[in-house]
Every structure is written in structure tokens, then in C-alpha cells.
Amino acid sequence: MNKSLFAFAAGFLFGVGLIVSGMASPRKVLGFLDVAGAWDPSLAMVMVGAIAVGLFAFARAGRRSTSLLGAPMQLPTTRDIDRRLVVGSALFGVGWGLVGFCPGPALVALGAGRVKALVFAVAMLAGMIVFEWIERSRGEGRGTSDAERVVAD
Question: Of all helices (H) and strands (E), which one includes residue 150?
């Protein structure tokens, strides 16, 4: 099997998981964030399950030099908590809290034809473009940006 087929299968499985768990619904996410009202703890259970799988997967991946498909492992090399990480995390959290979408579930909802997801996806892409523009204007000559590295892979 080729890498594209595995990528499709992984994305499909992720999307099905988001649908089954209800995470493609902004109401479910906003219910989780409403700790002072009608709190819905089901997202916490999904997160615990995802963290458990992630811990196992990253522990195993850290001991490998290549992936199961033969590609070189590209794990994060830094654990620094800097201003960019904190500000980016805060922006992500505020956006998540305002609309109830993060990128994965928004794309699943977009595939289901939800207009709110289309608005979110357009805003997300605009934010990515603005970020790249700022990064390029700030760091001319500093090398390749993270997004360019991902696209090149």
C-alpha cells in the first residue's frame, strides 16, 4: 500500500471518530466549556482516550528512527514554552471557545455541509496566510518556515 492510501485511511478513521464521539458538533464542545451551566463531560472522556493513545504512540515512536512506512521520524525536538507557544495556545483556545470548532472537527463538519464550518475554515485559512506573511516579513533570510517544511514533505 502506498503512503497516500495510509494517509487517507488515517484521516478517515479520525473523521469517523470525531463523528461518533460527537466532536464535530459545536454544541458538544461548547457544552464541555460551559462549566458554570449545563456542563457536558463527554469531551473530557474523549480527551482522556486520545491522550492515552497518544502517550503510547509517542513513546513507541520515540524509540524508532523510521515510521512503519519507512519515512524518517520527525518528532518535535524542543520542549520550550515560549511566548509564541503561549499566545498561540491562547488564541486557539479563545477561537475554540467562541465557535466550538477546532481544525479537525471543522473539516468534518465542512464535509457534512455545515455553513458555520465553512465560515470557520475560511477564517482559519486567512489566519494561516496572515501568520505566514508575518513570519516571512519578520524573518527574511532565517530559513524555511514550519509550514513550508510541512508542505515540502
Answer: helix 146-152
What 3-state class would DSSP assign to 66?
strand
Secondary structure class of 70 (helix, strand, coil): coil
CA–CA dist 108, 14 (Å, integer): 9
Q: Are 32 and 44 in contact (CB under 8 A)?
A: yes
HSE-up of residue 102 (Cα within 13 Å, Cβ side): 16
pTM: 0.69
d(CA 104, CA 126): 16
* Residue-by-residue pLDDT tens, the chain, 153 positions: 588 898 899 999 988 988 888 888 888 888 888 888 889 898 888 889 989 999 999 899 889 999 888 889 888 888 899 998 899 899 888 888 888 888 888 999 998 888 989 999 999 999 899 989 988 998 864 555 555 554 444
6: number of Cβ within 10 Å: 13
